[in-house]
Amino acid sequence: MAAILSIRDLRKTYDGGFQALKGVSLDIEEGEILALLGPNGAGKTTLISTICGITTATSGSVCVGGFDNVSQFRQARALIGLVPQEITLEPFAKVHDTVMFSRGLFGKPADPPRIEAVLRKLSLWEKRDAKIMELSGGMKRRVLIAKALAHDPQILFLDEPTAGVDVELRKDMWEIVGELKASGVTIILTTHYIEEAEAIADRVGVITGGDLLLVEEKERLMARMGQKQLEVQLTEPIDALPEQLAGHNLQLVNGGGALLYTYDTRAERTGITTLLNDVAEAGLVLADVQTRESSLEDIFVGLVARNGGGEAAVSGDAA
C-alpha cells in the first residue's frame, strides 16, 4: 500500500529547551490502523498536534496525502480528522448542529444525508436534537468522532478515544473503528489501554522521551519479542530447586508449589522435553502443566524500561 502520511526527521524543542520530539520518521499506509503507545510525556500528543498543524515543528517535514502540512496547510488539513483527548464541545448546542457546523468549517457544502449517515454509524441519530450537556461522557466522545468525520477525512487521529468510558462502550468504539477502517479511513490512535492496541491495531509504534523506538506489525512484534512460559505445578511444594534442574531457566513460584520455565518460541528447540525428563529424575511429581504467552503489555513495558523511559503506567494504562 502507498503511504498516505510521511513524517521525516520531525523535531520539536520548546522555548525552555525541552525536546518533545527527537527526529521522528514514520510512514503510515493508507487504510491501516496504527496504535501509538508510550508513557506519560512520551511525545504522542505533540506528534499528533504537529502533524495536524496545531503545533509548529522545530524542524523536519510532514506530508499528508502528497501535501506539505506547512506550505500546503489547507489541503493537508482537509484530509485529516482529529478527535482530541479533551471533551471540548459547546454544552448548549444540539448534536446535529454541532456536527453540521464542523463540516462547514472545512468549506464543505451542507449535506444532510451525509450527516445523517455519520450520526447513524455512531448511534447518535436518536440523539440528534439533544443538547450536548444532556449526553453521557461516552456519547460526547461519539460526537467528537462525528465532528471529525463530518468533512469526510482520509485520515482520522484518535487521541485516547476511550478514556473514561466503560468496558462495554469501549468495545463498541472498537467496532466503530473497525468499520471506519473497512470504509477506507486510515486511523492513528494513542491509547491508555494496551488491550485496545492489541485488539484493533495493524501496527504498533512505541514512543518514549520523544524517540520512536519502533513501528512494527503487531503480530510480528509479538512473535519476535514475545516469550512463552511453561508453569509446572507440583503435587508437593519444595524449598529450593534440585541440582538436576540448575541448568534450566527456572523460577520457583507460588510458594515453592510450581516451577516457571521461560523459553524463546523462535529457538530451534524449546528444551521442554529435557526439562520434564529432569523434573522426573529429580523425583518431583507434576500436578499440572500450563503455558502462557507474553502480551503486548509485557513487550511494551520491557521496551520502555530498556530505553530509560521510566516506569510506564499500565493496567492497560500506558499513557
UniProtKB/TrEMBL annotation:
Pfam families: ABC_tran (PF00005). Residues 5-234 form the ABC transporter domain. Keywords: ATP-binding, Nucleotide-binding, Transport. InterPro entries: AAA+_ATPase, ABC_transporter-like_ATP-bd, ABC_transporter-like_CS, ABC_transporter_ATP-binding, P-loop_NTPase. It comes from the Bacteria. Transmembrane segments: none annotated. One of its GO terms (molecular function) is ATP binding. PANTHER family: ABC TRANSPORTER ATP-BINDING PROTEIN. This is ABC transporter ATP-binding protein.
